[in-house]
Design goal:
The chain is of the alpha/beta class and 277 residues long. Helix content is 41%, strand content 23%. The structure holds adenosine-5'-triphosphate. Pfam families: ABC_tran.
Length: 277
């Protein structure tokens, strides 16, 4: 269930952001704000620049113009690449779950989860293993999974392991790139519940890119719609569903959009009748 009272304290502030690849303009003056404690989703058609925006927020790509502040730090002002102390300090305050997991095939699951701790802390191996095991448990994986290799896991387990790694350094901010893509509905539902639990337990701010309408209706506090290089609208799914903007309407009026909306309404009805009955 989306949180009804997210804080207004901004964790990410994006202003007048523009990005091009050659003469292909991907972002043309994007303004966005992500507030502390909210689950914020970015949606848009294929090629609308969602992944590029995510990459810009985590210092993997530099926009042409505009500014991005993450956790109070102006990313454009950071200098010196990854070796820079301020960059490292910032990187360890966020966790990223990449679309395809991004796990190293030659390392066990536990070694993968412990990797950020090895890179960013001076902790000894025994303690790193202990923390990695705790993170795996947090994401609902059995202890023996730690000794397995990514190729031995199901898609849902790989997502969980990737999430465990993203949580290794107890981040304040979590980026999820298509967290349920490629999963069967049951596994997708489990990831959905897990993300919800993480936010409830740790007050994480979560930014996700997703095409998953169930996830959007169930989880997102606010959603930004990208199209034609611009943010076409920002709001809760219910608010967006009311907006009279062709790019947003296209999203909601498609068959999948209508089906998901119907499902959400049914759930709301069940919830309401449960409360009053
Ligand atoms: N490194 C790059 N070099 C050249 N063009 C790129 C590069 N990265 C992205 N693009 C282009 O920028 C546009 C936006 O890509 P991006 O991956 O951000 O879109 P997206 O909204 O995430 O799409 P999808 O939903 O299909 O993943 C696309 O046209 C893509 O081809």
């Amino acid at each position: 269930m989306p949180s009804p009272t997210p804080s207004t304290d901004a964790v990410i502030e994006i202003s007048k952001l523009s990005t091009s690849f050659g003469d292909h303009v991907v972002h043309s003056g994007i303004d966005l704000e992500v507030r502390r404690g909210e689950i914020f989703a970015v949606i848009g058609g294929s090629g609308s620049g969602k992944s590029t925006l995510l990459r810009e927020m985590i210092l993997l790509h530099r926009p042409d113009t505009g500014s991005i502040r993450v956790l109070g730090v102006d990313l454009q002002a950071l200098d010196g690449g990854d070796a820079n102390g301020e960059t490292l300090a910032l990187r360890r305050r966020w966790g990223v779950m990449f679309q395809h997991g991004g796990l190293f095939g030659s390392l066990t699951v536990q070694e993968n989860v412990g990797l950020p701790l090895r890179e960013h802390t001076g902790l000894d191996d025994a303690l790193i293993d202990e923390i990695a095991a705790a993170k795996l448990a947090m994401t609902g994986l059995e202890p023996q999974v730690g000794a397995q290799y990514p190729a031995e896991l199901s898609g849902g387990m790989r997502k969980r392991a990737s999430l465990a790694r993203a949580l290794a350094l107890d981040p304040e901010l979590l980026f999820l790139d298509e967290p349920t893509a490629g999963l069967d509905p049951e596994s997708a539902g489990e990831v959905d519940q897990l993300v919800h639990k993480l936010r409830e337990l740790f007050g994480l701010t979560i930014v996700m890119i997703t095409h998953d309408l169930d996830l959007l209706w169930q989880l997102a506090d606010r959603v930004a719609v990208l199209a034609e290089g611009k943010v076409q609208g920002v709001g809760s799914m219910s608010e967006l569903a009311q907006m009279d903007n062709p790019a947003i309407r296209k999203f909601f009026d498609g068959p999948r959009g209508r089906a998901a909306h119907e499902q959400d309404k049914q759930q709301a009805d069940v919830h309401t009748s449960g409360q009053t009955g």
